């Protein structure tokens, strides 16, 4: 079992209206450690009824929460940030146990997750309206920003903490209560956050965590007219479904959906830096992030050398239980994920790709997979069209800038992209022409709390983090003061 400094952080109950509770009919589901296949415990399996209760509690808590001054809300968020950092070792251990990522990555995520509380707490004090120049002498035109109201959030398992705080922090900062449904595969990180919310002084009902039947909980969140905004991070098909379900009540939506990131290495790139960036971008979280490099395009002149240096680095990655020191790649989240990876590799090999390393399940068993590199990959292969969400790097060859931009943009997704080049004119040109919400130039890691995270095309709507991230939780009110 888990050896925590503070065992009370591991909760096996949901958190609704400031109370720890079970499902109404007492059902539970097990939570499994993907590295060992062992059960870590259970959580309640809730549905529409419990979700409704959490939404109603949020609505009841809303007036008092929005009435607090920005500074009062900021102080609570600051405390929540501090508590996360103080308990970082335990939070990271919980995360690695339920999600599989290496402990060092889990610790990195905990501090990244906490940073949203700090940042949005500070931003709460900077929610500003406007006074507009009036077209008539007897009128004054005023614009204010108000909290949108009760919010709901649905989050994925790949970042069990950060995907939550990136939504909860701006909601609370803006003056909105929020009901969360974390992924059923990684509920303990979410519940640990609820323990700390309580300790930080978040009033009851302002933050609730409902766990269980995703379809039933999601349907209630979408249909309930009290909920004014839904924020979702997950797959594009589920995003489309939620959008449809929110249409009858015309909810505001933030959607962070799938990506199919291109990673381009031009002839003039610093090759060592490009290799390092590609490894970091591809193999972080075992390739299970929506901004992971999914298609690596390398220009003809440096292709063979890049492939050689990159494969050498990938071969050196240590696969193992994320709890062990020095591990670079943990298990995938579940067997289904491995099956997708295997399909993508088999499809590529059958169409002429070459295996440079890896390609198989890892000898450690469970859902461990060998870090894999494929060369001579072409656009007709599945790896080019779909997000692999696993540790497979497909290397495509290209000749011209024009050609690679067309290839990179030839996808319904538009979340992140990366490229390595040194010619300043090319850097600017390519950055402008790539159709994604985020572009990493000469870096493989782009996420932080200050920058706007989000996509274009079918990768989603809205932005998270940054000063823009607050807007998703605010509505504009125009006040026309007449008869002056
Ligand atoms: P992934 O493939 O990364 O698991 P999903 O989109 O399936 O992506 O999952 C992301 C989140 O969406 C999880 O919290 C999951 O429980 C939730 N989810 C899945 N299906 C639905 C649904 N029909 N309604 C609401 N939430 C859902």
UniProtKB/TrEMBL annotation:
Domain Aldehyde dehydrogenase: 22-478
Family the entry assigns: Belongs to the aldehyde dehydrogenase family.
Key word Oxidoreductase present: yes
SUPFAM superfamilies documented for this protein: ALDH-like
One Pfam family here: Aldedh
InterPro entries: Ald_DH/histidinol_DH, Ald_DH_C, Ald_DH_CS_CYS, Ald_DH_N, Aldehyde_DH_dom, Aldehyde_DH_Superfamily, Succ_semiAld_DH
Protein name: NADP-dependent succinate-semialdehyde dehydrogenase
Keyword annotations from UniProtKB, A to Z: Oxidoreductase
Lineage, top ranks: Bacteria, Pseudomonadati, Pseudomonadota, Betaproteobacteria, Burkholderiales
């Amino acid at each position: 079992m888990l050896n925590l400094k503070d065992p009370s952080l591991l909760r096996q109950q949901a958190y609704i209206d400031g109370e720890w509770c079970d499902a109404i009919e007492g059902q539970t589901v097990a939570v499994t450690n993907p590295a060992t296949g062992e059960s870590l415990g259970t959580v309640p399996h809730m549905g529409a009824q419990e979700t409704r209760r959490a939404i109603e509690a949020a609505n009841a808590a809303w007036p008092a929460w929005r009435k607090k001054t920005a500074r009062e809300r900021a102080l609570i968020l600051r405390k929540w940030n501090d508590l996360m950092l103080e308990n970082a070792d335990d939070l990271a251990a919980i995360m690695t146990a339920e999600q599989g990522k290496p402990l060092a990555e889990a610790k990195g995520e905990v501090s990244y997750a906490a940073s949203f509380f700090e940042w949005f707490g500070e931003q709460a004090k900077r929610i500003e309206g406007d006074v507009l120049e009036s077209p008539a002498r007897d009128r004054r035109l005023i614009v204010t920003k108000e909290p949108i109201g009760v919010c709901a959030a649905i989050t994925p398992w790949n970042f069990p903490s950060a995907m939550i705080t990136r939504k909860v922090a701006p909601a609370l900062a803006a003056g909105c209560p929020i009901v969360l449904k974390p992924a059923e595969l990684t509920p303990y990180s979410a519940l640990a956050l609820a323990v700390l919310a309580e300790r930080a002084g978040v009033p009851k009902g302002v933050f609730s965590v409902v766990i269980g039947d995703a379809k039933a909980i999601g349907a209630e969140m979408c249909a309930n007219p009290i909920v004014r905004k839904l924020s979702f991070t997950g797959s594009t098909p589920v995003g489309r479904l939620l959008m449809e379900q929110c249409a009858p009540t015309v909810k505001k939506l933030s959607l962070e959906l799938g990506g199919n990131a291109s990673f381009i290495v031009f002839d003039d790139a610093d090759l060592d830096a490009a290799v390092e960036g590609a490894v970091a971008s591809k193999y972080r979280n075992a390739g299970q992030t929506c901004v992971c490099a999914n298609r690596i395009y390398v220009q003809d002149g440096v292709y063979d050398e890049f492939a050689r240096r990159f494969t050498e680095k990938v071969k050196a990655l240590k696969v193992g239980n994320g709890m062990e020191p020095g591990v670079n790649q943990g298990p995938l989240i579940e067997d289904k994920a491995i099956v997708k990876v295997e399909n993508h590799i088999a499809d590529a090999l059958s169409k002429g790709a070459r295996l440079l390393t890896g390609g198989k399940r890892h000898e450690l068993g469970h859902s461990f997979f060998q870090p894999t590199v494929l060369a001579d990959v072409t656009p007709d292969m599945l790896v080019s069209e779909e997000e692999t969400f696993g540790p497979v790097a497909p290397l495509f060859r290209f000749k011209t800038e024009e050609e690679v931009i067309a290839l990179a943009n030839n996808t319904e997704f538009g979340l992140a992209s990366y490229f390595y080049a040194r010619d300043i004119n090319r850097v600017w040109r390519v950055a402008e022409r790539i159709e994604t919400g985020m572009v990493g130039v000469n870096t493989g890691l782009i996420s932080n709390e200050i920058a706007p995270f989000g996509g274009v095309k079918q990768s989603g709507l809205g932005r998270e983090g940054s000063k823009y991230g607050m807007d998703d939780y605010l509505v504009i009110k125009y006040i026309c003061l007449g008869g002056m």
